[in-house]
Write a structure and sequence with these properties.
Elements (H helix, E strand, L loop, with lengths): L3 H8 L5 H17 L4 H7 L3 H17 L8 H5 L6 H18 L2 H25 L19
Helix pairs in contact: 2-3, 2-4, 2-6, 6-7
């Protein structure tokens, strides 16, 4: 991972907390309206302002190593019933939003991190469900009928 000074070198400026807030709020505004992701968020997030601040803390910790986020992302995602389809849509929407609200260099940093995070979460969800995903594989939930 890059240090904050590496990120500053890559972006030509420090990614500001306002950039993180703008990205998080724009992304979740879109995600809440998304046909695939919206219903999941609607079913699991009751206090949106609290959720947005928590996610801003998460990204501040990822980008600036502030340590503000003290949560546990894996247990939060395991009960959601998500798989590769959801992670792919999340990444598609996140990358689109980052490209729309950040400089290209800053967006690239967030996209790189988001891909690593999504991959780790997908493997963790699969593992929790008793599935070992082979290298290069993806986790697809089976329907109750076994398909």
């Amino acid at each position: 991972m890059n240090s904050p000074s590496d990120i500053q070198d890559k972006t030509g400026k420090v990614i500001e907390e306002d950039d993180i807030a703008r990205l998080v709020r724009s992304f979740y505004g879109r995600a809440r309206q998304d046909a695939l992701l919206g219903p999941i968020f609607a079913a699991h997030v009751e206090n949106w302002e609290h959720h947005l601040l928590r996610i801003q803390d998460f990204w501040s910790s990822v980008i600036h190593r502030t340590g503000r986020y003290q949560g546990r992302p894996v247990p939060a995602h395991v009960p959601l019933g998500i798989d590769a389809t959801h992670f792919d849509r999340w990444l598609e929407l996140f990358e689109e939003t980052a490209g729309d609200v950040l400089s290209p260099d800053a967006a690239a940093i967030f996209v790189e991190r988001s891909r690593m995070i999504a991959g780790s979460l997908e493997l963790a969800v699969a593992s929790h469900d008793g599935v070992i995903v082979p290298p290069g594989g993806r986790y697809r939930r089976r329907e109750p009928n076994g398909t």
